[in-house]
Model the fold of this input.
Amino acid sequence: MANLIRSAKSGSDWTQGDLDAYNIYVTPQDTATFFGILVLPEPRVPEEILNVHEADDMMNDENARLIDLLDVAMLPPARESEESAVDDFMVELFRLLGYVGRRRYARTRKDLFLPICGEIRHAKTDVCIVDRLRNHILLLVQEDKRHGEHSSFADTEARLIVEGIAAFVYNNEARRASGLPELQEKIMAGIIMVGTTPTFYKVPVTADLVFNLRHGRFPTQRTEVSVCFAPVARQHRRWSEGMKPLDNRRTILSCYEAFKAIAEIND
Done:
């Protein structure tokens, strides 16, 4: 692996091969191991979201708007040049779940600098949560635009992971500008979306990994990224069903609730 070619690539061009080139591996974990709890918490959302299937049957307009966006986000774009509604859905979902608030806001298409192989490239997030007071990125979302096709999902993982590295660099630049010491390591929280189905990631980034990426070198220390699929009842249909079935909706929202601790989403 140390002899693999490493070149100055933007985040959107990363593939599974680039993870190999920087000694980065993805390891699946069950929910207890990944979230560090035996039982997923109950989602703190209105009961209507959990118990009413269709937007037209809801009494609350905000709840109905979320389910309307859920339905649209499950559909492919009408035209090839058009973006899907997944980002819009995530921004609304983060608001409902309390991921955003007085101290935190959601950004779409935020452009991050990526130091790689002696050059500066870019990594652009689909959605990210930013801590306003510290100007720190807490959470990254990357959409898999080919709806979970095997050939594309691993490359989407690579793009999410390199965005996590770029966010670590961004956060350290903010700390340096505030006169604070730079972090030597940090677990960056990430989500890949296929329609309305999330897959959760913990991306451990270190100053050593950033140094090797900046200079195009093979890190001797292996980076182990953890991944967790929401434990929905019908795993073989998780991408096609998404959050539409009520049992899936409750399970996935419970995962989002547990993920707050990893993303440092504090009330």
Q: What stands out?
A: The chain has one domain: 11-262. The CA atoms of residues 54 and 209 lie 46 Å apart. Residues 11-262 form one domain. The first helix runs from residue 16 to 21.
